[in-house]
Every structure is written in C-alpha cells, then in structure tokens.
Target: 2-phospho-L-lactate transferase
Amino acid sequence: MRIVVPAGGIGGARFLRGLKAALGIDSPVPEEQSTNAITVIGNTGDDITLFGLRICPDLDTVMYTLGGGIDEERGWGRADETFTVKEELAAYGMRPTWFGLGDRDTATHIVRSQMLAAGYPLSAVTEALCDRWRPGVRLLPMTDDQVETHVVVEEDGRRRAIHFQEWWIRHRAAVPAQSIVSVGAEDAKPGPGVLEAIAEADLVVLPPSNPVVSVGSVLGIPGIREALAAKTVVGVSPIIGGAPVRGMADACLDAIGVETSAGAVAAHLGADLLDGWLVDEADAGTEVEGIEVRSRPLYMSDLRTTEAIARAALDLGRELAGRKGGGE
Ligand code: GDP
Ligand code: CA
Model:
C-alpha cells in the first residue's frame, strides 16, 4: 500500500511515527528495509533564511522525529541541544534573537545552505540529509521554489507583512493576523516526484497538521490539490473539542475566518478533497456534508495511541476507496 501524507512539523511528524508503526516500518529504518510505502509532502512555507542559513523547520522536524534525533519534550530541534552559537550571535548584537537556533541543528542548516549555494535543489538537499537520518519515509519538499508564508499585521496603525516565523515565535501569534499570504505559491511548481507519488498512491492521509499554514501551504502549490482530490483522502482533525491540542492554530484559523472546530476545518478543506474525516470523541456527532465523519480518541499521547489513530485512518481509507469512482 502506497500512502501520501502532506505534512507540517510536530503534528505531522508525530502522526507519521504512528503511521510507520501501523505499517511495520522501524524507526530509524534499517538499511535493508524499503522506504517507499510512505511519501511525505513536506511544508516549506515556514522556511526562512537567518544569518545566511536556510532553515526548513517542518522538513527538519519530520526528519529528526522519524530519524530519532528530535527533542521529544520540545517537539522541535535536536535532542541534547545547546545554544552557544545563538548566544554568541546575540552578543554581537545580531538580529533576530527570537529564533531557537541550536548548535547541533546549525550543522544541518550549514549543510543545506552549502548545497543550495552549490546549485542543488532543496529536494536533493533533503534527500542527502535524510541519508543520515533514515526517516523511513520518502520526504519530498512540496516545491523546490521559494515559497514563504507571510502574515499581515497592524503595528502602530500601519499594516505590515512579517515572516510567519516572526509572527509565530516572536509574537506567539498574539498579534491579530489580518491575512496569511503564501508568497511565491502562485508561480511555484510541485517538487520533483510529488505529482508522481500522488498519482501512484493508494491513499492520501492528512495528518493533524495546522490546516492553514501546514496543510494549507502544500495545497496552495498549483497542481497539488487537484492531484490529491482525485485520490481517496482521509484526514485526522487537528482540532479537538474546539481547541488546537498543541500550539496556536486557532490564531491561523481566525485569520482566515474559519471557526476553530473539527467540523469547520473539514468544511474548509472541502468535500472535493476530503472523503473521510476522523474527529475526536469529544466532537462525536460532527457532520460535514459530503464527508464521512468518524469519531475516536485523537490525542497523540504516546506511540501506541498514535498508531491506533493511524490504523483508524487506514481502515477508513480502505473502506472509502471502494466507494470512490475512478482515479484509483
Ligand atoms: P507545526 O508545523 O510544528 O506547527 O506542526 P503541524 O502543522 O504538523 O501540526 C500542528 C498541529 O498539530 C497543531 O495545530 C494541533 O492542532 C495538532 N496537534 C498537535 N498534537 C495533537 C494531538 O495529539 N492530536 C491531534 N488530533 N492534533 C494534534
Ligand atoms: Ca510548521
């Protein structure tokens, strides 16, 4: 069974760990195991250049989480991390100071930046980085083109667009967003292998990633949404009981005028895309026209519970695949 998963950072990565367990793929994957059962289309809208380094937070979160290098407690960055470089940069008065640039993590950014400067596309760079981490999935950037999520805010009576990371980390999404813009998306092309992987997929699973800036960014690359919609698509709600479980996704939903509820997010993603939608037991009874909704516990507290969520998504996907005409 071939599965495509468009994913952001922490929510996507944790779900993928459960999906791998459900499919019997070890973490990190041993040399001899095939890794093409799961193709991840990683969000690169959060990417940012700081201190001359190209940083891809969501690709790295997926790579580290599945490769065994993640800081489990924080959910991002490397385990056993230190922040000496960050402190030294601050001592030179270098801005910004709000980005959590870890020392171990910096090595990844140096390798990436050097390869990009040498002319390799991000997809090739990501593949090279994954050679070390062996995440057990094919990790494809949604695009090799530069696409960055910017947030329009009002500061001192003036409208200003800031990078998503500045809004998210520095302002903790507490400054109301007037709009969220995927800069460069219109002219971007899906990364190499992305449309092919979707075409070959038996099932598409949307993990509980941020529906606006993670899944939304992937869907915003011309051609990807249409390709996914032709497949059987099952999603896992990132909203439980009217709240994002971890993080501040509600601020993103507010910005695009979508209510923070499991049903509203499914309706926003659309019945043309979604065939099935898993909601938490707290949201049992949710109905969305044209989408098969099932309820079960969706809190990813540990690997076993996450594996069970992934199994439920696979089961629903198999069931619905039989009903969907064409494309399969
Ligand atoms: P980010 O890029 O690091 O913000 O990560 P993602 O976009 O992949 O995922 C973030 C989203 O995951 C959050 O907005 C939450 O709504 C969702 N999330 C986090 N933990 C859980 C969980 O245990 N269960 C569910 N259903 N959703 C979760
Ligand atoms: Ca992200």
In short: DSSP finds twelve helices and 14 strands in the chain. The radius of gyration is 19 Å. The CA atoms of residues 90 and 279 lie 44 Å apart.
